[in-house]
Design goal:
54% of the residues lie in helices and 10% in strands.
């Protein structure tokens, strides 16, 4: 019995460690500062009463609200709360409540699940040749390709199911004659080497790992009566951030992204 309890405790520790890892990943991508991380928590937890009028009381309330913020020190949270108040993103320091402006800021950073994904049935292959001395231009191009949902097939070769011509033309006009960018159109039934387009898409976007992440999310929160909406939101949105949200026709038959989304909505709506 003692060994079983020890094993369960260890599993709980691992679970919290994994949650913290996910949230820190979110803070580096979705939310680039501790300020946003705290604001993000307020969005899903709501008002976090300080239990007193001092910043230390608020600090304890914030830390106790979830293990994810436990490692953030007092001075960092104190400065972040003051900054949130100054920007008008929370109402007071005594009992922080996120304002409409605070919600607006966060929603501009949080990924949105696309229920409708219109697709023209083509895959676009993007190749480019930008000189080594134009490293900034090349890095900027890669950043744009990532933002528009393109995946890297190999060095200087990317693909996407969405027509990238307009944004790439704008990029080329901004950067001038920095290099060549070529966009080729491939039908949905095409092949590259021995792989079908669907198989290639799965590899490029690492859909098997994403699907496993969604599966683990569902297993962690489905059917649980006591679930902190903040934990569910953090776990789900970290996965969604990595999800290219491809057209339905290109996803595996056992895709769990939609089931994970509806579970996320269910948990959040009952908070």
């Amino acid at each position: 019995m003692e060994n079983d309890n020890k094993e369960n405790t260890e599993k709980k520790k691992i679970s919290r460690k994994e949650l913290r890892r996910r949230i820190l990943r979110a803070s580096e991508g979705l939310l680039s500062t501790v300020t946003d991380l705290i604001l993000y928590q307020f969005l899903f937890v709501g008002s976090i009463g300080g239990g007193g009028k001092t910043s230390k009381a608020v600090y304890r309330a914030v830390r106790e609200a979830d293990d994810a913020l436990y490692d953030i020190n007092y001075q960092t949270i104190k400065r972040s709360l003051a900054y949130l108040k100054k920007k008008g993103w929370i109402r007071t320091l005594k009992e922080p409540v996120i304002t409409a402006e605070g919600q607006k800021r966060l929603r501009s950073k949080i990924p949105v699940y696309q229920t409708e994904r219109t697709w023209d049935g083509h895959i676009y292959l993007i190749t480019y040749d930008i000189p080594e001395e134009e490293k900034r231009t090349r890095d900027k191009l890669r950043e744009i390709l990532t933002k528009v949902g393109a995946g890297m097939l190999q060095a200087s070769v990317w693909l996407t199911p969405y027509n990238p011509e307009k944004i790439l033309q704008e990029f080329h006009q901004e950067t001038g004659e920095a290099g060549e960018i070529i966009v080729s159109c491939i039908g949905k039934d095409g092949y590259i080497g021995k792989k079908t387009i669907k198989e290639l898409i799965s590899r490029v976007y690492n859909l098997s790992q994403l699907n496993l992440d969604y599966k683990n999310f569902i297993a962690s929160f489905k059917g649980k009566k006591k679930v902190q909406s903040w934990q569910a939101a953090a776990s789900y949105l970290c996965i969604l951030q990595e999800d290219p949200q491809l057209p339905w026709e290109l996803l595996p038959n056992d895709w769990l992204g939609d089931k994970a989304y509806f579970l996320y909505k269910k948990v959040i709506d009952r908070r």
